[in-house]
């Protein structure tokens, strides 16, 4: 949901904020939707790299899931404006874009693969997909609430992420 107090995003406004001529922005992006997709795509690439680095830091498969999830939340809180562009406003996806091409799909697939490894299932199994989906929803809630309610007495981020992820993984593993 867009901030009702924020002015609408325009290429001219972006050019003004960047300190360049509007025509410079139009040379790279034909419309605001193209710019938003480019920003989302770039930031999703960064998010994937950060999560991969966190998961590659070692540990068993479930520790790797936790590390990637914590990296997701840290990214969202460190880059709140971009996080909001990536997740709280509808992305202007071209009509012909396949779901596998959606910005963020790679990050979600990596989460699904890591979850599958942790719970001992095939990455294509419905349980791996559903558990990854539930984890993502939980992480998004953690980030969104901390952005919108920064003064609430939240417990430490790592503790919250670990507890939420562990509960979801335990539920999936018990099935």
Structural description of this entry:
This protein has 175 residues and is mainly alpha-helical. The chain has two domains: 30 residues, no CATH class; 135 residues, Tetracycline Repressor, domain 2 (Orthogonal Bundle). The protein is 69% helix and 0% strand. Helix 4 crosses helix 8. The N terminus is likely disordered.
Topology:
Layout: H1 11-18, H2 22-28, H3 32-55, H4 61-78, H5 80-87, H6 105-119, H7 126-148, H8 157-173
Termini, distance in Å?
Answer: 35 Å
Named CATH topology of the largest domain: Tetracycline Repressor, domain 2
The CATH H-level superfamily of the largest domain is Tetracycline Repressor, domain 2
Helix content: 55-70%
CATH class of the largest domain: Mainly Alpha
The pLDDT mean sits at: 90
Structural class comes to mainly alpha
The proportion of residues in beta strands is: under 5%
Defining key terms:
single chain; 175 residues; mainly alpha; Tetracycline Repressor, domain 2; 2 domains; 0% strand; disordered N terminus
Quick recap of the structure?
Helix 4 packs across helix 8, helix 6 packs across helix 7 and helix 7 packs antiparallel against helix 8. The protein is 69% helix and 0% strand.
């Amino acid at each position: 949901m867009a901030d009702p107090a924020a002015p609408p995003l325009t290429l001219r406004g972006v050019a003004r904020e960047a300190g360049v001529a509007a025509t410079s922005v139009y040379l790279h992006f034909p419309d605001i939707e193209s710019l938003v997709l480019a920003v989302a795509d770039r930031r999703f690439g960064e998010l994937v790299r950060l999560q991969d680095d966190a998961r590659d830091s070692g540990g068993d498969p479930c520790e790797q899931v936790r590390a990637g999830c914590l990296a997701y939340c840290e990214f969202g809180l460190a880059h709140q404006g971009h996080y909001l562009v990536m997740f709280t406003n509808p992305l202007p996806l071209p009509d012909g874009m396949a779901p596998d091409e959606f910005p963020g799909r790679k990050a979600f697939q990596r989460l699904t693969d890591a979850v599958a490894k942790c719970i001992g299932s095939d990455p294509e199994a419905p349980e791996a997909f559903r558990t990854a989906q539930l984890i993502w929803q939980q992480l998004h809630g953690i980030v969104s609430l901390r952005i919108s309610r920064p003064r609430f007495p939240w417990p430490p981020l790592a503790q919250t992420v670990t507890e939420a992820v562990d509960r979801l993984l335990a539920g999936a593993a018990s099935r």
